[in-house]
Design brief:
Elements: H1 4-12, H2 14-33, H3 38-64, H4 72-106, H5 110-113, H6 123-126, H7 128-155, H8 157-173, E1 190-196, H9 203-217, E2 223-230, E3 240-247, H10 257-268, E4 275-280, H11 300-315, H12 340-345, H13 350-358
Antiparallel strand pairs: 1-3, 1-4, 2-3
């Protein structure tokens, strides 16, 4: 099917697709300029260059064909990528060996036959020939300029080498100025916010805080609407809430999602009774957080102590926000011992009593 992977493969191999046709066509033109007929030039030119074109095409196939048959998840992603490139270059080779020689044997070439016809009087010269003539003059001037530069480089080899080394060093100096990232950020005009209330909070208390947070978010003119969920999805627990925030289109607002996240984070820090654990887009590769690490051990109590210490230390580091931990504190619980004989006299079972207490 036509999808992003196949389109990426086709865009990558555009240059490869036209190379074969250009090489074959240029060699045919060379034979025509030697005085041969168009038919004979097409035959001799294609046969002369055929082995080189064949070797070039099969070398590309040898590189990309194994990619199409890789195993595992990576193979599933790149199967269409490799097969698309291989199929495209093979079709390109077939066209350069069939269609190009056929057209060259019968198609009038003004650049070759111009001396045989009256200049400027053919229909081609009065139409498309004007554009091609201008293009040929431009390429000839470019070729003359290139020849002058090439002659200078051959006469001054040390200066040419020094210029190349200087350019390489300058490119290394510019590397720190370039940002690096695994997956570039994209602004889809939507973002997410997660927060939690103190452990043991009721569903109603968390819902009230979610409404308060949503009202604060909607104060920003960039927000179209919000959708809050409590105790479900990414907010698994009565004290956890998640908000989906839909923004207006990017061209209709001045602030980016990162700018809005900074403003909301400062505003929500003034709301008592909540702890914001995430504001921003969901990472398409790693999840919510840009940096994650694990602490493992056999003693859960010791892990809890280290977890609290690590979180507090990380919050003190400038530039780190939305610090969160997957190790959650225990929920407050009450132990109820049922007097079974008295409950039985009243017609109550342990299960029915537990069901009533669970609703509190």
């Amino acid at each position: 099917t036509i999808n992003m992977v196949t389109l990426m493969a086709l865009s990558l191999c555009v240059g490869l697709l036209i190379d074969d046709a250009i090489v074959v066509r240029e060699n045919i033109v060379r034979h025509v300029q030697m005085g041969k007929s168009s038919y004979q030039a097409a035959l001799d030119g294609t046969q002369e260059i055929g082995l080189a074109v064949l070797a070039t095409t099969f070398s590309i196939v040898a590189v990309f064909l194994p990619i199409g048959f890789m195993q595992g998840i990576i193979g599933k992603f790149f199967h269409e990528f490799g097969i698309t490139i291989v199929a495209a270059v093979l079709i390109s080779m077939f066209v350069s060996f069939t269609l190009d020689p056929m057209l060259s044997s019968v198609w009038h070439d003004p650049s070759i036959h111009r001396d045989r016809d009256a200049p400027g009087h053919s229909r081609y010269d009065r139409t498309i020939g004007r554009l091609t003539a201008w293009f040929e003059r431009a390429t000839e001037q470019l070729a003359r300029g290139y020849q002058r530069v090439l002659r200078w480089a051959l006469v001054h080899p040390l200066a040419t080498l020094g210029l190349a080394v200087s350019t390489f060093i300058a490119s290394i100096v510019l590397v720190p100025l370039l940002g690096t990232e695994f997956v570039p950020k994209a602004d889809y005009s939507e973002t997410n916010l997660n927060f939690n209330t103190p452990m043991g909070s009721s569903l109603e208390a968390t819902e009230a805080k979610a409404r308060q947070v949503a009202d604060i978010l909607r104060e920003s003119p960039e927000v179209r609407y919000t959708l809050a969920t409590v105790n479900t999805g990414n907010a698994n627990g009565k004290s956890y809430a998640s908000l989906y925030i839909r923004l207006v289109d990017r061209h209709q607002r001045q602030r980016s999602i990162d700018d809005l996240s900074v403003a909301w984070r400062a505003r929500l820090a003034q709301v008592p009774g909540i702890t914001v654990t995430h504001i921003g887009q969901i990472d398409s590769v790693g999840g919510n957080k840009q940096i994650e690490f694990s602490v493992m051990g056999a003693d859960l109590a010791e892990l809890g102590r280290l977890n609290t210490r690590i979180v507090e230390q990380m919050k003190k580091i400038p530039g780190i926000v939305d610090v969160d931990s997957t190790l959650k504190p225990d929920k407050p619980t009450f132990r109820v011992d049922v007097q079974r004989e008295a409950a039985a006299d009243l017609g109550l079972g342990v299960g029915s009593i537990g069901a009533q207490l669970r609703n509190l």
